[in-house]
Amino acid sequence: MTDALPFPAARSAGPVRRAADAALSRFTPTVTIAAYLFLFVPIAVLIVYSFNASRSTVVWTGFTLDWYREVLADRSLQRALWVSAVVAGASALLSTVIGTLTALVLARRTFRGRDGFSTLVLAPLVLPEIVLAVGFLVLMAAAGIPLGYFTLIAGHTLIAVPFTTLIVRAAAAALDRRLEEAAADLGADGRQTFFRVTLPLLLPAIVTAFLLAATLSFDNFVMSTFTSGVGTTTLPLRIYSMLKTGITPEINALGTLLVAANILVVVAVAGRHLKLLLKR
């Protein structure tokens, strides 16, 4: 008698579970669509109103390309864009090199204090960026280093190194060590093994780390606020100064151009990976 008690409960659990699965299958797409709308509708509104003939950002009066002409003719925006591009490229290159070497050390070497060193490298991920920016500014002031390109690049590198280290470290940990051992068995020394086996296998992760570091640098605002000097105003700082007078279609046009540039980069990278897959 007692053994028969669980069976009704088990039989009743079937319809309940099926109902829950059905509700979840309907609920999940709805939430996903709502999340994508929340993310992309503001971007769509920005793009649409970048073609608005009026200076108002809420009243549509007609179609025009004048705001794009103003953006392309604005010398201060061109200068800020150049500064952001130089800083992003230099800091991404430095952080990728430092992150790659650090990741290889953490993934391949065992030494005393490795866990503490790893925690120290990844500490900027959990510390508020404004704390890092203030501390970095105090250090530069104590060292007598003037604010400019050097401080911008160094500060952005400090922010990006933990990200590049994590990406390359994950790839290095998943790397098949037997390939390197096979290269050594065939007579390759350590340098040849690294440049002909290890580095090509890690190249996708390194490229990903570089692109992420460049994006973080290009969009950075907090660290740039504390480390930029005269003549080294980055694009985010320039946009923020423009926002103090109100949102104008010129800012919408600039945002649309940045969105288009990001899409082109994503398409180029995706096309590259697609070609590699087709060759295989």
Q: How would you portray this structure in words?
A:
The chain is mostly helical and 280 residues long. It has 2 domains: 2-49; 74-279, MetI-like fold. 79% of the residues lie in helices and 0% in strands. It has helices at 6-49, 66-73, 75-108, 114-122, 129-143, 149-173, 177-185, 190-219, 222-227, 235-243, 249-279. α1 packs across α11 and α3 packs parallel to α6 (149-173). It starts with 5 loop residues before the first helix and ends with a helix. The model has no long low-confidence stretch (mean pLDDT 84).
Mean pLDDT: 84
Full CATH superfamily name of the largest domain: MetI-like
Architecture per CATH nomenclature, i.e. the level-2 architecture of the largest domain: Orthogonal Bundle
What overall geometry do the principal axes of the alpha carbons give? globular
Reported for the largest beta sheet, the result is: none
Strand content: under 5%
The counted number of beta strands is: 0
- Give unreliable regions as ranges: none
Membrane topology: Multi-pass membrane protein
Transmembrane segments: 27-51, 80-107, 119-143, 149-172, 193-218, 251-271
Pfam family, one: BPD_transp_1
Subcellular location: Cell membrane
